[in-house]
Amino acid sequence: MHSLFTRNTALAALLENHLASLAAQENLPPETIRQALAAGTMVLLGNPRHRNVRPLLVGQPARVKVNANIGTSPLCHCLQTELEKLDAALETGADTVMDLSISGDLDAIRRDMLERCPAPLGTVPMYAVGQKYLDAGRDPAAMDPEDLFEEIAKQAAMGVDFMTLHCGLTRRGAEWATEGGRSMGIVSRGGAMLARWMLHNDRENPLLTGFDRVLEIALEHNVTLSLGDGLRPGAGVDAGDAAQIEEVITLGRLARRALNQGVQCMIEGPGHVPMHEVEAQIIMIKKLTGGAPLYVLGPLTTDVAPGYDHIAGAVGGALGVRAGVDFLCYLTPAEHLTLPDIADVRAGVMASRVAAQIGEVALGRPRAVEREARMNAARAALDWQGMRASALDPAMVDARREPHKTEEVCAMCGKFCAVKMLR
Ligand code: SF4
């Protein structure tokens, strides 16, 4: 048996119990899954402490997955609303959810979300530590690194399936990102807090110096590390600068260390990247990180579309998937403006699912290509049930067709219907 499975017994047990169903879901031979997991090019999300979690594969050549971020903010903190967003995200087809709450009783929110969410749930433990200091009126630069390790251990024991940890953010990278060469400096919340701590205390990142402690905690509960991109570009013009690349190189080295210790890792990616640079960015990140599953936020291909960032992100996401991205984090129409509401969550999930489909068609993935063929056959036959069944969002088909659902044609052309005309 590969050393990953002998070291990570929680993962081995999870795989044993679910391999047949995972292979069927992904339409992949079980051996392909085992080999990809052992090589670190695929991860199996699932913490045995997360009751009733449905384990999920992320990584080539599994289906591209979509994540929805939800969670409270200091200006908007209704737990009930966040739980409704969680339901909406899953209903719309999100494969995972991240709780990014930064206000209220974070332990209670996380517990409620874990209970309600059968999909893998991710978090950013740094937020809880930041809240502890900021709510007490203290500077996060005064953080005791032990608080961070305790928080990671607590959340792992609660059942969190994957965690964003900015382990690859070095002091040198933080200096490069803040010395004035960037248009947007550091835009990651967790990254900014860590960078402030490092620069203020003139010390190296505790998640980097204490990486072995992180691995020990992760190993116990098969928590997948989502190695965070604290220095991701926050503006298109910052993409690919030295600070970003320095962090990616470090993340690649850490991913190898983790795999050798039996811990699964994903790599988080950009960020804001102009369209013509997306492919190069993805190929470079994949190479520097040994093909570890790549989880991207967007990438956003323009900086001037607030209100429509889910569209700007879907363009980058589709290009990214064609270049090797495994996991898309959604962007919603609320990005850069406010906390998303339920409609924003639905729009964001659908935009990412559309991007994933576009990218997978370009890759020639059979399931995606066959879905297109089924839709085309249904359209040619004016078979509305068939169109509904092939659509990424059947509820949208129903809603838009409702006023004319008894007609054979649709209201676009009515009796001018070209399909009917040529029958
Ligand atoms: S009415 Fe027009 S848009 Fe609608 S099915 Fe016929 S050709 Fe297509």
Overall description:
The protein is of the alpha/beta class and 423 residues long. It has two domains: 3-364, Alpha-Beta Barrel (TIM Barrel), CATH 3.20.20; 367-421, no CATH class. Helices cover 53% and strands 10% of the residues. The chain has helices spanning 3-7, 9-26, 30-39, 79-92, 106-116, 125-135, 145-158, 171-178, 189-201, 206-209, 211-221, 242-260, 275-288, 309-323, 342-363, 366-380, 384-390, 394-401, 418-421, and strands at residues 42-45, 56-59, 65-70, 96-99, 121-123, 162-165, 224-227, 265-269, 294-297, 327-329. The strands form two sheets. An eight-stranded parallel barrel has the order 3-4-5-6-7-8-9-10, surrounded by six helices. The longest helix is centred in the C-terminal third of the chain and has 22 residues, at 342-363. The radius of gyration is 22 Å and the shape is globular. The chain starts with a helix and ends with a helix. The mean pLDDT is 96. It binds iron/sulfur cluster.
Structural features:
binds iron/sulfur cluster; 2 domains; TIM Barrel; two-stranded antiparallel ribbon; 8-stranded parallel beta barrel
Topology:
Layout: H1 3-7, H2 9-26, H3 30-39, E1 42-45, E2 56-59, E3 65-70, H4 79-92, E4 96-99, H5 106-116, E5 121-123, H6 125-135, H7 145-158, E6 162-165, H8 171-178, H9 189-201, H10 206-209, H11 211-221, E7 224-227, H12 242-260, E8 265-269, H13 275-288, E9 294-297, H14 309-323, E10 327-329, H15 342-363, H16 366-380, H17 384-390, H18 394-401, H19 418-421
Parallel strand pairs: 3-4, 3-10, 4-5, 5-6, 6-7, 7-8, 8-9, 9-10
Antiparallel strand pairs: 1-2
Helix pairs in contact: 4-5, 4-15, 6-7, 7-11, 8-12, 13-14, 14-15, 15-16, 16-17, 17-18
This protein binds iron/sulfur cluster.
